């Protein structure tokens, strides 16, 4: 018998669940399906909503095409033919992104992505924000969509600090424009913390700290003061530091540190296998990482799909 609202509560309409305007103020049980998928590390909420609209998600045997649905742990959720289990405890990793990798789940030009370069034993993860293909340094990875969203919000007040190399030099007067806040092509950037570190031949090194992290913010702001960035390295994101992590290496943040920094509750004890923090380093520069062919199934375990 095909599932219906009587046998599968998640498929009932708000009216059928007794949650309709004028009837009751009690919201339906559970959480929105996109939130649940994000919490399980499947994808960000926005990407999860897109996956639902594409018909890639089913609940209790029925394909859904709208994210306006609440589910509970009693419902059976399947994405791309694979059952979605209960979310694991929130985890966070530090990754030293090398230049040349795209911070994206898929790349239309078939370029190597951050997720292609991660160790095979990494679980499915999402990036916290992005670094463009030519930028390098600290990139945070998490298996939890709620943490991803929380860390990306400017309201956290966390500084993202970068070492910036520019071609030529730049005057303090021009840097003061960045310190006061600047508008470029109609986009307003908040005041930046800028320090001129040293001149090194034809280049100069600066340290720049920002709180928003808009798309290519530092590169565009520097162009506005007639300076061209030729190297950009993120060295910290809030309390998390790149330190001596080698390019291509990934290291897990201890659960205690993560809970203290984000104010998370201590998880209830669970019967699970002990896990060691993952630390891997990419092969030497002479050996390029293996490319994943276009025939790779959608949604590998280590990248958001």
From TrEMBL:
<protein>
    <recommendedName>
        <fullName>Pseudouridine synthase</fullName>
        <ecNumber>5.4.99.-</ecNumber>
    </recommendedName>
</protein>
<feature type="domain" description="RNA-binding S4">
    <location>
        <begin position="31"/>
        <end position="90"/>
    </location>
</feature>
<dbReference type="GO" id="GO:0000455">
    <property type="term" value="P:enzyme-directed rRNA pseudouridine synthesis"/>
</dbReference>
<dbReference type="InterPro" id="IPR036986">
    <property type="entry name" value="S4_RNA-bd_sf"/>
</dbReference>
<dbReference type="GO" id="GO:0003723">
    <property type="term" value="F:RNA binding"/>
</dbReference>
<dbReference type="InterPro" id="IPR000748">
    <property type="entry name" value="PsdUridine_synth_RsuA/RluB/E/F"/>
</dbReference>
<dbReference type="InterPro" id="IPR020103">
    <property type="entry name" value="PsdUridine_synth_cat_dom_sf"/>
</dbReference>
<dbReference type="InterPro" id="IPR006145">
    <property type="entry name" value="PsdUridine_synth_RsuA/RluA"/>
</dbReference>
<feature type="region of interest" description="Disordered">
    <location>
        <begin position="1"/>
        <end position="29"/>
    </location>
</feature>
<dbReference type="GO" id="GO:0120159">
    <property type="term" value="F:rRNA pseudouridine synthase activity"/>
</dbReference>
<dbReference type="InterPro" id="IPR018496">
    <property type="entry name" value="PsdUridine_synth_RsuA/RluB_CS"/>
</dbReference>
<dbReference type="Pfam" id="PF00849">
    <property type="entry name" value="PseudoU_synth_2"/>
</dbReference>
<dbReference type="InterPro" id="IPR050343">
    <property type="entry name" value="RsuA_PseudoU_synthase"/>
</dbReference>
<comment type="similarity">
    <text>Belongs to the pseudouridine synthase RsuA family.</text>
</comment>
<dbReference type="InterPro" id="IPR042092">
    <property type="entry name" value="PsdUridine_s_RsuA/RluB/E/F_cat"/>
</dbReference>
<dbReference type="InterPro" id="IPR020094">
    <property type="entry name" value="TruA/RsuA/RluB/E/F_N"/>
</dbReference>
<keyword id="KW-0694">RNA-binding</keyword>
<dbReference type="Pfam" id="PF01479">
    <property type="entry name" value="S4"/>
</dbReference>
<keyword id="KW-0413">Isomerase</keyword>
<feature type="region of interest" description="Disordered">
    <location>
        <begin position="264"/>
        <end position="305"/>
    </location>
</feature>
<dbReference type="InterPro" id="IPR002942">
    <property type="entry name" value="S4_RNA-bd"/>
</dbReference>
């Amino acid at each position: 018998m095909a599932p219906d609202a009587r046998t599968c509560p998640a498929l009932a309409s708000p009216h059928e669940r007794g949650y309709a305007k004028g009837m009751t103020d009690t919201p339906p049980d559970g959480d929105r399906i996109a939130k649940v998928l994000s919490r399980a590390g499947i994808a960000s909420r926005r990407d999860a909503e897109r996956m639902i609209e594409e018909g890639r998600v089913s609940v209790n045997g029925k394909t859904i095409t709208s994210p306006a649905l609440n589910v509970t742990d009693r419902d059976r959720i399947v994405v791309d033919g694979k059952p979605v289990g209960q979310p694991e405890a929130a985890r966070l990793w530090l990754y030293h992104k090398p230049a040349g990798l795209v911070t994206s789940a898929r790349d239309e030009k078939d370029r190597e992505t951050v997720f292609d370069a991660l160790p095979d034993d990494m679980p499915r993860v999402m990036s916290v924000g992005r670094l463009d293909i030519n930028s390098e340094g600290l990139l945070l990875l998490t298996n939890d969509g709620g943490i991803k969203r929380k860390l990306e919000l400017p309201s956290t007040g966390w500084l993202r600090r970068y070492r910036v190399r520019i071609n030529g030099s730049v005057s303090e007067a021009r840097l003061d424009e960045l310190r006061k806040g600047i508008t470029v092509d109609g986009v307003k950037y908040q005041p930046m913390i800028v320090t001129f570190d040293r001149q090194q031949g034809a280049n100069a090194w600066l340290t720049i700290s920002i709180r928003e992290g808009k798309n290519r913010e530092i590169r565009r702001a520097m162009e506005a003061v007639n300076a061209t960035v030729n190297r950009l390295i993120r060295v910290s994101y809030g309390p998390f530091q790149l330190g001596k992590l080698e390019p291509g290496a990934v290291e897990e943040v201890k659960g205690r540190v993560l809970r203290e920094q984000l104010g998370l509750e201590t998880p209830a004890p669970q019967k699970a296998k002990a896990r060691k923090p993952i630390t891997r380093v990419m092969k030497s520069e002479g050996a390029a990482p293996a490319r994943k062919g276009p025939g790779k199934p959608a949604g590998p375990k280590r990248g958001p799909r």
